[in-house]
Amino acid sequence: MTAIDRQSGALRPDLEFIDPQARRQYLDGKVAAIVAHAFEHAPAFARRMADAGLTPADIGGVDDLARLPLLRKSDLVELQKKAPPFGGLSHLTTAGLRRVYVSPGPIYEPAENSLADDRWAQAFYAAGFRPGDLCQVSFNFNLAPFAFWLDESLRQLGCACLPAGVGNGEIQVRAMKDLGVTGYLGTPSFLATLADKAEEMGLDPRRDLSLAVGFVAAEMLPESLRQSLEERFGMIVRQSYGTADVGCLSYECRHLGGMHLAQGCLTQIVDPDTGLPLGPGQPGEVVATVFNPAYPLIRFATGDLSFIDETPCPCGRTSAKLGRIMGRVDQMTKVKGMFVHPGGVRQVVDKFPQVAAYQLVVERQGHNDVLTLVCEVEDDSGGHDELKARMAAAMKDILRLSGEVRLQKRGGLAPGCKVIDDRRKWD
């Protein structure tokens, strides 16, 4: 059998290897075009421009975007309340859509009839996925767009998808073995769980399974975990960065050292207070402009902190790289691929008037995130099993994450303490 080259080349060499000056001209043209389109077809964007005293003639390229205020996730929630279903940011009706996704908020996101965006496919190719791979997607095919994006992007690349979803470890391992699955897409912690499950079943993950490449996302990937996974399976493990709102923004190549900016969108680092772009190496907020005429999110602030690294990469890609995610602009925390924010925690606790004070603690046990909702009540002497069960169910319903509930007497939590206490440490 001929060995597959999983190291060289790129999906879009016309953009990934392009001269930086030519890329800037390309981006200037795309920015001007999407602004003109959104101004004509998205009433909420036209109002945003008018409020800033701007017309499309004022936005001729990338530099001019700084004149436009940032768009935040909270803005999407308010816009959709005022103008359902899509907040005046899409001209399409449901008759012209392939799907409608739902993100916490709730926020409703339209998906055009065919996926033209190939940014996730760029990430897959850089990770080593190749046409003919059978790829097991272990993300949740439920409401949110991510797993569906991956499925369609694999098709763009010429790969087949096994839509496994979350959980069912033994079934997933059996499918990997029986079908000769070569690619994995999911969280790194679940891939580690599958290695453990395979060994419980008497299998050697490296010898008895066929995994060659892994694309992991939605969680932090410590280098110790990456090395463990690559050794246990004998595979390549790479990651990317993006959000459910704007899709893939950056991805790793074989040389690591940061994530190349995905081509087909504009990713910038800005000062969270002023919105002005920052230079290479300066930490700031990740802001994206996507060139999607069906749902043009322009100057969308992700809330994540990072920086741009312009060090040339040996792989030949000429785009800058996004540095590691350094945290959140506000108190929001990403846990198991889901953003948890203080308002969501408050929604949980508001259902239980017995609670006088509370804090959500996020910790790391092994390679897994663990949530504990610490609640102070007047009486913690016992008999609260039913209350804790109901609170845990409310967490799962509202935050879409499972966690433990710990009750304690009043006075243990400091007055004015953070609603979310993220105690995770990454090596």
From TrEMBL:
<dbReference type="InterPro" id="IPR045851">
    <property type="entry name" value="AMP-bd_C_sf"/>
</dbReference>
<dbReference type="InterPro" id="IPR028154">
    <property type="entry name" value="AMP-dep_Lig_C"/>
</dbReference>
<keyword id="KW-0436">Ligase</keyword>
<feature type="domain" description="AMP-dependent synthetase/ligase">
    <location>
        <begin position="172"/>
        <end position="287"/>
    </location>
</feature>
<dbReference type="GO" id="GO:0016874">
    <property type="term" value="F:ligase activity"/>
</dbReference>
<dbReference type="InterPro" id="IPR000873">
    <property type="entry name" value="AMP-dep_synth/lig_dom"/>
</dbReference>
<protein>
    <submittedName>
        <fullName>AMP-dependent synthetase and ligase</fullName>
    </submittedName>
</protein>
<feature type="domain" description="AMP-dependent ligase C-terminal">
    <location>
        <begin position="337"/>
        <end position="413"/>
    </location>
</feature>
<dbReference type="Pfam" id="PF14535">
    <property type="entry name" value="AMP-binding_C_2"/>
</dbReference>
<dbReference type="InterPro" id="IPR042099">
    <property type="entry name" value="ANL_N_sf"/>
</dbReference>
<dbReference type="Pfam" id="PF00501">
    <property type="entry name" value="AMP-binding"/>
</dbReference>
